[in-house]
Amino acid sequence: MLWPSAYDGGFPLWAYAYLHHYYVISSVRSGQSRVVDPCGAVLLETEKDKQVIFRDINLDFVVSHLDFNHSIPDKIKAKYGDRVDVRRSNLGCSHFVVEPMDPAITCRQLQAEFGFESTFQYHDRHREAYSHVRDGQRSPKQQPLHGIRPQHGKF
Questions:
Q1: What is the pTM of this model?
Q2: Rounded to whole angstroms, how far apart are CA atoms 15 and 57?
Q3: pLDDT at 19 over 80
Q4: How many domains does the chain have?
């Protein structure tokens, strides 16, 4: 999302990026222009002596939840190094961003190889389970993309 404005947007832009999992690029007259990642973290911002900022952004990225995926960021980094940018949110939430930097790598390939789902898939799975509970039924056993992996461990 581009945010050209006289108003710098501040926290609302971070919240929009986080809630909808998209990049926000601001260009403003007041305050600081920023690059905000899909977890709401400010990656770059202008300063008094640095009035122009830029960053390559691959729109083929995935935001994933750490539930059942604690080992995934380390495994991707161990295999692909700097060819894939893997960032954990520094805002106290349990999300991480996977963004290939090498055009030969896609998020679909990484998801198939490492068995992790997007937060959208994760939340859809939970919404479906909650709908069963609301209807007075027992929810079916949830089956994440990866199959069986410990929820909080790095295995």
A1: 0.81
A2: 19
A3: yes
A4: 2
